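@here heads up, posting the sequence + SMILES for the pyridoxal-5'-phosphate run so it's all in one place. Ping me if the SMILES looks off, I pulled it from an old spreadsheet.
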Amino acid sequence: MIYADYNGSAPLHPSVKDYLCDRKQNGPYANPNAIHSIGKKMLFGMEKCRRMCAKVLGAKSNQIIFNSGSSEGISQVFHSVMSERQDNKNIIITSRIEHSAVVKACAYYAERGAEVLHAKTTTSGVVDIEDFTKLLKDNADKTAMVCIMAANNESGVIQPWKEISKLCQENGVTYFSDTTQYIGKTEFNFEESGMDYAVVSGHKVGALVGSGFIIAKDPATLKPIVFGGGQEKGLRGGTQNYIGIETLAVAFDAFEKSKDQLSELASYRVEFEQEVKKAFPNAVIIGEEADRLATTTMIALPGVHGQAVQIELESQNIFVTTSSACSDNEPETSKVLKAMGIKDDVGRGVVRISLCCGACNEDYKKIADALKSAYAKLSGISNY
Ligand SMILES: Cc1ncc(COP(=O)(O)O)c(C=O)c1O
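bot reply: prediction finished. Complex structure tokens:
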């Protein structure tokens, strides 16, 4: 079996599995906010995890606020910035390739009077930095926040977040980047990033689903959306998911140890793409010209339906998706691909192959063989 949907949800990292097996047996289990000694032990462990995550990601431990994952993190950052904005700052600058959590947060505040401006996307799937610069400079004094992701979940295309961050700092505008698909898949240092807020989701990095955190440059700017007993310094109520938090620390520790393999993985991906293109010269690699995550490739053979390819691959025990889990059931070209100007003959045909840092060349070779046989079979049938 080859599982190639890590951008959807990563299986538990092997070191997380080992950790959990041991932990299940030995405990301890207690509320980390309790004042008895077991509670204190839990709190000590949780704070150690905070320090471990912070260290790997170049943040201070007080900048990490644990939560349930990125959708919650995104909602809280929007709430914090938009509900406290000054009257004259009414604009959100974003892009057309954001995850639904960002799209819906923007729509929510648009219904409440905010103006949402979208920077254009190039045909390579990158936010157009010239267009963004103009939008920002023309509107800097009225902009409450910029929200542009670091890497796209469908295409794996890395966005010009470093330039965006610098421009935001120069213009005194808050920058929040949805880093869900970036952090844990490539190197990242929060302090150096210049971002005001970033988010992490445990199930994208091999930790337990339902765990995650916000990294905030100034945590005092956050407002809670979950009220409770003062946990996370009053910024996120509710008993912390301490086992999930422990798995985050284990997963980031494992990432730190294996990140040297990323450049090798990127070269396997290039070989894989070249091999498929050699067999099918009209195959399209989405975002081919752009800088992309080493772990992601999105590919289409015009006229061949992505879902048919997915089913063919599944019959060979290879699990891919057609775009993202959120748009998999839509028979249409996804909004991300539309923003890149991709037409339906390609857009309906895409499959996304997303692996992890420790994936090997063998996996790519097996997927390439299966994909080539699926294309050979399906291109003889008129799909649409
Ligand atoms: C780019 C991006 N942002 C946000 C999310 C939401 O993450 P979570 O599942 O942790 O809520 C996802 C998950 O697919 C994502 O890919």
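MO: Residues 69-71, 99, 101, 149, 153, 178, 180-181, 201, 212 surround pyridoxal-5'-phosphate (CB under 6 Å).
MO: One more: The domain at 14-257 is CATH 3.40.640.10 (Aspartate Aminotransferase; domain 2).
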